[in-house]
Amino acid sequence: MSTVLVTGASGFVGSHVIPELAGAGHRVVALVRSPRAGETVRRRLPPELAAAVELRTGDVLAPDTLPSAMAGVDAGVHLVAIPRDWNGGKELLRVNLGGTQNVIAAMQRSGVRRLVHLGALGVEDREQLNYAKSKARAERAVQESGLDWTILKPSLLFGPRDGFFNIIADLVRIPAPLVPVPGDGKSRFQPLHVGDLALCLRLALERPETIGRVYEL
Question: What pTM, to 2 d.p., does this model score?
Answer without folding.
Answer: 0.92
